[in-house]
Design a protein that fits this description.
With 315 residues, the protein is an alpha/beta fold. It has helices at 11-19, 35-42, 56-60, 80-85, 98-114, 116-124, 130-133, 151-162, 186-192, 212-217, 235-245, 268-271, 286-306; strands at residues 2-5, 23-26, 46-49, 67-70, 89-92, 143-147, 166-170, 181-182, 195-198, 223-226, 248-251, 275-277. The protein has 2 domains: 2-96 and 286-306, 3-Layer(aba) Sandwich (Rossmann fold), CATH 3.40.50.720; 99-277, NAD(P)-binding Rossmann-like Domain (Rossmann fold, 3-Layer(aba) Sandwich). The structure holds nicotinamide-adenine-dinucleotide (NAD).
């Protein structure tokens, strides 16, 4: 099959696809604006993307298109409904990068509690401030609230158990779990938790859900971690809560996130007081990228061998 890969993809798995007889067009420089033209030229049957957005124009660019593979978990970067109307399947690679994101979430929790980034910046600047940095609360016995107990939320819960955290969780589709005590109301969770981490999909229904009302419900001085999607959080409300209520936040994702190859990102949320940020690196470990690529190749083979779609999200 002819496959256009419009993002970075591990070399080993590109070779595997070629060995299986597929024609590969690898163009990691493509973006939302240039993908439609490239697809018009290439007439690929399959498009594989990581962060490159696939809009209606890319889907309409060639009648040959059968499948778009999102090499990752979230698929809010792909116009899945338009794809459905055009008979194009969209498949994702669920669960493959959950451990990587959970590891980052744990790192961010520890960073917030011990203010590790500030510690390091001060030390590098030649400052010794043991008195200030000895003020950490500690994690053991505190309450972690996990919102969204899916693939990533569950991996976070397993790791948090090892730290002796008490785990509560809210997920409208999970009534019971051996990993956490479920609560039935998200604001109830916000009131009880010392640390909140969100692992939910970004949909029309969840956009800006984490707003003034939510931060108002949180305990003063509690921690808030978002490694899911920027659009879930009303960033000005978070900035205010961090400045006025002593909430401390760590974000891996942002509402106005720059493109993967951008060199600059200046935004009020990245420089705000009490907010740490990373560069949307949740899934970016070699282990995770390898696991994602393996599943992407399985999806290709399932279509090539059986004509069926594995992990289709727009049935
Ligand atoms: N930072 C990164 O690099 C990175 C990498 C991978 C995934 N993600 C993001 O992480 C998020 C979670 O991914 P996942 O693989 O765990 O997804 P998942 O589908 O396995 O789990 C999501 C869970 O959220 C629950 N949910 C749905 N709506 C909810 C709501 N309104 N409130 C609470 N829970 C709700 C679902 O029932 C499900 O259990 C997604 O937004 C994904 O895009 C980020």
């Amino acid at each position: 099959m002819k496959i256009l890969i419009a993002d970075k993809f591990p070399k080993h798995w590109v070779e595997v696809l070629k060995e299986k007889g597929h024609e590969i067009i690898l163009n990691p420089a493509l973006d939302e604006n240039t993908l439609p033209e490239a697809q018009k030229t290439e007439q690929a049957e399959i498009i594989i993307v990581r962060s490159t957005k696939v809009n209606a124009s890319a889907i309409d660019a060639a009648p040959s298109l059968k499948l778009v593979i999102r090499a990752g978990a979230g698929y809010d970067t792909i116009d899945i409904n338009h794809a459905k109307t055009k008979g194009v399947a969209v498949c994702n690679c669920p669960g493959t990068n959950s451990i990587a994101v959970a590891e980052l979430a744990m790192g961010l929790i520890l960073s917030l509690d011990r203010r590790i980034p500030d510690n390091i910046i001060d030390l590098k600047a030649g400052k010794w401030n043991k008195t200030e940095y000895s003020k950490a609360k500690g994690l053991y016995g505190r309450t972690l609230g996990i919102i969204g107990l899916g693939h990533i939320g569950r991996e976070v819960a397993k790791r948090a158990q090892a730290f002796g955290l008490k785990i509560i969780a809210f997920d409208p589709f999970v009534k019971e779990s051996p990993l956490a005590q479920m609560v039935s109301d998200v604001y109830d969770l916000a009131k009880k938790a010392d640390i909140i981490t969100i692992h939910v999909p970004n949909t029309a229904g969840t956009k800006h859900f984490y707003d003034e009302k939510f931060f108002e419900a949180m305990k003063p001085g509690a921690y808030f971690i978002n490694t899911s999607r920027g659009g879930l959080v009303k960033e000005d409300a978070l900035i205010k809560a961090c400045a006025e209520k002593g909430i401390r936040a760590a974000l891996d994702v942002y509402e106005k996130e720059p493109k993967a190859d951008a060199k600059e990102f200046v935004d009020p949320v990245t420089s705000a007081v009490n907010i740490y940020g990373t560069h949307h690196i949740g899934a970016s470990t070699e282990q995770a990228q390898d696991a994602v690529a393996e599943v992407a190749v399985q999806i290709v083979q399932e279509l090539a061998d059986k004509g069926t779609f594995l992990h289709q999200v727009n049935k």
